[in-house]
Here is the input.
Amino acid sequence: MISKLYIVATPIGNLGDVTLRAIETLKNVDLILCEDTRQTKKLLDKYGIKKELLSYHSHSKLSKVEKIFELLEEGKDLALVSDAGTPGISDPGTVLVSKVISRVSLDVKVIPIPGPTALIAALSASGLPTHEFTYLGFLPHKKGREKIFKEITSAKRTIVFYESPHRILKTLESLQKFVPDKKVCLARELTKIYEEFKTGTAAELLEYLKQNPEKQRGEFVVIVA
Here is the structure.
């Protein structure tokens, strides 16, 4: 029997962004793998889905992966979700998918259920060039960080990456140093109540956030033209 592992994209903020196919899939699988069971339960409760949950995240032990293998070997159909967005995009889900595909003993079909992802949502409304872009995920906290900003200096394509509220000011300071003339777009709190897009030079955006400390909250997508 071929079992199925569905890679299900879930909303990045607004729970209304879930697709009909995602809802149907989550209702029909035998079990849902998720980063934080409490976070996933909010989505399931909204759509009246009652399903067994199993946590799987970046700190999961090898025994958890073996448990997932056992379920698939039993012919169970599983859904993999992250806390928000598409599993595998800057997300530990990519490791699991790789392990499942490379497991010779498993007869599993991996099926993507596409939907929300913050980087595409941000690009679509940024007004910056999108015909070619490079996605960097989350930048390293320390080692290699300055090297990346130097690479952005000579980039011929639009650059996209994620940043936390704790490092957004330092990131803008680095962009001001290395690419002072390039246009930058900050996409903050996408699909949520305080969603905001702000475009300008790094210096202009840095000044804006310093004058409006409340705007430093939330998760950021940073786009450099």
About this structure: The radius of gyration is 19 Å. The chain has a mean pLDDT of 94. Strands lie at 3-8, 31-34, 53-55, 78-80, 108-113, 133-138, 158-163, 184-188, 196-200, 220-224.
